What we know:
Serine Protease, Human Cytomegalovirus Protease, Chain A
Amino acid sequence: MEYKFCKPEAGLTLLEGHRIAGYASVFGRRDKGGDTVLPGAYGASLQKLAARGDKVRMLWQHDPAQPIGIWDEVSEDAHGLFVKGRLLPDVARAREALALLQAGALDGLSIGYRTVRAQALATGGRNLVELDLWEVSLVTFPMQTEARISAKSDLLAGLRHATASMRDAREAVARL
Length: 176
């Protein structure tokens, strides 16, 4: 199996609680290994998974012994491979991942796959035409710069907004 560590331009966003969403792969961007995933590369794999009732796995650092959540949605769009899922709070490593996401210490996504079809480039690297996607991991070091997690929780944003509002209110009362 091959891996592509990647950073989504839109970022993987921490939503309410343990829910996360973002791009695990961005099309047309050359990664640190010289490979570029082309639009449509995941289509056949996603169809096969759906036909057999299977899902792309959510792992910790590509370790098959450490699943940390469920990808509820994995789909291609014009930008790349979009993932949406949830960390499982009853799994210790998932709680650790959540804490690392919230602190900004963890910010990468990576795909685990088998190459079905690729085109070698004269300049080195490959255009990845068709991939058999196995898993999407939360990782420390992404291979594709555009597949980083932007750990901004709606809850944390709400708390920051509430804190700023309370500070503004205190200042307004002090001016009276």
